[in-house]
Design goal:
- The chain has about 325 residues and is an alpha/beta fold.
- The protein has eleven helices and 14 strands.
- The protein folds into two domains: about 200 residues, inorganic pyrophosphatase (n-terminal core); about 120 residues, Diaminopimelate Epimerase, Chain A, domain 1 (Roll).
- The strands form three sheets. A six-stranded parallel beta sheet has the order 3-2-1-4-5-6, covered by helices on one side.
- Helix 3 links the parallel strand 4 and strand 5.
- It is globular, with a radius of gyration of 20 Å.
- The N and C termini lie far apart (about 50 Å).
- The structure holds manganese (II) ion (MN).
- Manganese (II) ion binds next to loops.
């Protein structure tokens, strides 16, 4: 299918729908939340123009962080509660690299012929699950792709939409520090400023949000950094017992692997391995060199992600004796 028709197909599908479910991924990051909020803004606009007269809901399996509450339609996001999937005739999946990340696999598997799925995303394609797939792994964020849709539908970007689009770009590019940052990201960001986006406020909301207990946990991770010279991997490993003694939550570790990847000069990649609960070990990977694609390693471990940032989850237990770690 020629790419220029995809936008028209998306619009046609929206117009035919009565009740749309916008879904973003579990453990939502800035781009996931911004994509929901920006797309809701897009639907509001086509409603105002009387192109479409339907209903919509925003869903994310896990509760978004409160500091994103400046985003438009944020209060509409449903989380921690089951939705009635059969109520919807169109689901639009945003920023979900994998169908599992929607948290709705069961529902999607039982969907009827009258229910359609559109997948809008910038992760590498793992398995096609939608009727219309709009993916571009070179886009810095999913909001970048949503901006292209705004333009294709000839919609105006108001201040609210601009804030949401820019938030996705800022968070997924790590304030323009990650190697995936490209010309389009910067051009779009500058356009968003001209549409009224508040860059200093977005930076403050998405960066200046760490608690003292979170910083103590970061300190622990940093004090326990190791370097494997053979594989050129910088890594830190934390057992459940060690983590419990810090008085922090897992959310507090959000951002640390990106930070380490940004500031440490040695190594080809950074790995944080942590014991999530008694059975599950979680790994976060960041590439520190352009030629290293960490999603390949994550895929081998049944995980996923991007070239520069990926993660995995494995069954097992980290055991530490005399400073030697073992997974049993
Ligand atoms: Mn993203």
């Amino acid at each position: 299918m020629p790419k220029e028709n995809i936008y028209q197909n998306i619009l046609n599908r929206i117009i035919k729908s009565n009740n749309i479910l916008l879904v973003s991924h579990q453990n939502p990051d800035g781009d996931a939340i911004s994509s929901l909020c920006a797309f809701a803004e897009l639907l509001e606009q086509i409603k105002t123009k009387s192109i479409w007269v339907g209903k919509y809901s925003l869903y994310c399996q896990d509760k978004p962080a409160k500091y994103f509450d400046y985003l438009p339609n944020f209060e509409k996001i449903i989380s921690d509660k089951k939705i009635n999937f059969s109520d919807f005739d169109l689901m639009i999946s945003l920023d979900c690299g994998d169908i599992k990340r929607t948290g709705l696999v069961e529902e999607i598997n039982h969907k009827t012929d009258n229910q359609f799925i559109i997948d809008i995303d910038h992760h590498p394609l793992i398995e096609k699950f939608a009727d219309i797939t709009l993916k571009d792994k070179l886009a810095i964020s999913t909001t970048q792709i949503i901006y292209r849709i705004f333009k294709n539908f000839h919609l105006t970007i108001n201040k609210e939409a601009a804030n949401a689009i820019l938030t996705g770009i800022i968070t997924d590019s790590g304030n323009f520090l990650y190697p995936a940052t490209n010309k389009e990201a910067l051009t779009t960001a500058s356009k968003m400023l001209s549409y009224g986006a508040d860059l200093p406020y977005i930076i403050k909301q998405t960066s200046k949000n760490k608690s003292i207990s979170a910083m103590r946990a970061w300190g622990w991770i940093m004090a326990n950094l190791n370097y494997n010279k053979t594989y050129e991997i910088i890594f830190s490993i934390i057992t459940k017992k060690e983590f419990d003694s810090l008085g922090a939550s897992w959310d507090d570790l959000e951002g640390i692997v990106n930070f380490l990847g940004n500031v440490i000069q040695e190594g080809k990649m950074t790995l944080l391995l942590r014991q999530e609960n008694n059975e599950i070990i979680k790994g976060s990977l960041r590439s520190n060199k352009k030629e290293i694609d960490v999603s390949k390693l994550a895929n081998v471990l049944m995980g996923g992600g991007h070239k520069y940032a990926a993660g995995f989850s494995i069954n097992g237990k980290i055991e530490k004796t005399n400073n030697i770690y073992k997974i049993i």
